[in-house]
Amino acid sequence: MAKIRRFCHILLRFLAFGATLSAVIVMVTSHERTSFLTLSFEAKYTDSPAFKYFVVANSVVTVYGFFVLLLPEESLLWRLVVAMDLVFTMLLISSISAALAIAQVAKKGNTAAVWLPICDSVPKFCNQMLGALVAGFGAVIIYMILLLHSIHTVLDPLLLRKT
């Protein structure tokens, strides 16, 4: 049973690492240039602080995920990993929330602020942005599952000793 639990944990960690890494790669490579009459503009992730935050947050969590994959099973640092999982899950949630808000404005615009939608003009950029957000949302879900699994794994032996 312990080997199955360990395998599931490693698999979830690897999936979380892959999801955050793919979110970063897809968002960083999203850019498109378009022209309207004589005006030309380029849409890229660096135009929005929310997208930059999304990339930085997912990059930090990717590096963290890589190091946790290398952590030995017997290490006492696993107790710290529970707290760090919580912090990084919250970081991912805040970054995806900010990026989703800007993506909504890019898709629908905002008539009150007179912001026009840009996704009709730069569909490749918007599709890549959507792909990055889907990967980021997948990472959030996986990290929530990992957080629950880590809490159960670390706290369960403590509860068994008290009884």
Radius of gyration: 20 Å
Query: Can you list the strand order of the major beta sheet?
Result: 1-2
The helix tally amounts to 4
**How much β-strand is present in the residues?**
5-15%
Low-pLDDT residue spans = none
Envelope shape: elongated
What's the story with the biggest beta sheet? 2 strands, antiparallel
> What's the quaternary structure here?
single chain
Beta strand count: 2
Derived structural class: mainly alpha
Average pLDDT for all residues = 88
The helix-strand sequence is HEEHHH
End-to-end gap: 21 Å
Architecture overview:
With 163 residues, this protein is mainly alpha-helical. 73% of the residues lie in helices and 7% in strands. It is built from 4 helices and 2 strands; from the N terminus they run H-E-E-H-H-H. Helix 2 runs antiparallel to helix 3 and helix 3 runs antiparallel to helix 4. The relative contact order is 0.17.
Describe, in short, the structure shown.
Helix content is 73%, strand content 7%. By secondary structure, the chain is mostly helical.
Helix and strand arrangement:
Elements: H1 2-28, E1 31-36, E2 39-44, H2 49-69, H3 78-108, H4 123-162
Antiparallel strand pairs: 1-2
Helix pairs in contact: 1-2, 1-4, 2-3, 3-4
